[in-house]
Amino acid sequence: MQDTQPKPAYFAFRGQELLCRPDGRAEPLDSHPFPDRKPGKDPWLLDVFPLRIPGPADPAKEGPVPTVLSLAPEAEAPEGLSWVPFRSVLGSLAWDGVLPACRALALANWRAGSRFCGRCGSAQGDKPDETARLCPSCGSVTYPRLSPAVLARVHRDGRILLARNAAFKTGIFSVLAGFVEPGESFEDCVVREVAEEVGIRVRNVRYLGSQPWPFPDSLMVGFEAEWESGELAPDGIEIAEAGWYGPDDHPPLPLPGSLSRRIIDAELFKK
Ligand SMILES: [Zn+2]
């Protein structure tokens, strides 16, 4: 007989760490990991909210709405579970399997920073009919914030531009990246970031793909572009080193699981 009882589902985060079973997967837990902790009364439990997934309901995939728990830094993992940095969870899984957990973390981050109205400073509540905060004093509605950032894979003579960010202590090289400024298109941003960081001009900017990146609220948007003019001159502030690389002579690359690694692999190794 088929079990028709829907199972509850929980995601628990401690900062940017996900509470995982020993297999380290990003699927929700099927029982409350902290049943004795009550929201509003326990300093361990910072926030509890339902994870509504936008879009039309799909009866084939219908299940309980997962609950997201935000835990304080001192919260210890229950027996049999462990806190795992969510970034490392991403590297071990097929991307579509982690989207609910990405949404859960992005919303947990946003909620932690939107408890008070940015206009009048009053404590805000949840807007009942959509994923937003509503200020009871001034009526201001605040939606989850997204901070888009571009990734730029620049091509020249069959090689791609990889650079070492001055902040990366691990020695990895990646494509150039930067946040989109207000009043700027994605394409403008690619041209500006490449010029600022390594001093060259690019053209023919084309979209490659995107990826939610909840650290804390980014959306990574990948592009390719062609070298047009200039020689590499890293700015020495954000970019420490940069060069043109092929499949046989590339430096250490970013961990799997990121869009930057995916668009590097797609060009260097045609996979
Ligand atoms: Zn207000």
Model description:
The chain has 271 residues and is an alpha+beta fold. The chain folds into three domains: 10-112, no CATH class; 115-144, no CATH class; 147-268, Nucleoside Triphosphate Pyrophosphohydrolase, CATH 3.90.79.10. It contains four helices and 14 strands. The strands form three sheets. Strands 9, 10, 11, 12, 13 and 14 form a six-stranded mixed β-sheet that branches. The protein has a five-stranded mixed β-sheet with strand order 3-4-1-2-5. Strands 6-7-8 form a three-stranded antiparallel β-sheet, with no helix packed on it. The longest helix is centred in the middle third of the chain and has 14 residues, at 99-112. The termini are far apart. The relative contact order is 0.14. Bound molecules: zinc ion.
Structure, briefly:
With 271 residues, the chain is α+β, with helices and mostly antiparallel strands. The protein has helices at residues 86-90, 99-112, 186-198, 259-268, and strands at residues 10-14, 17-20, 45-50, 67-71, 82-85, 125-126, 133-134, 141-142, 147-156, 159-165, 176-179, 201-213, 218-229, 239-245. The protein has 3 domains: 10-112, no CATH class; 115-144, no CATH class; 147-268, Nucleoside Triphosphate Pyrophosphohydrolase, CATH 3.90.79.10.
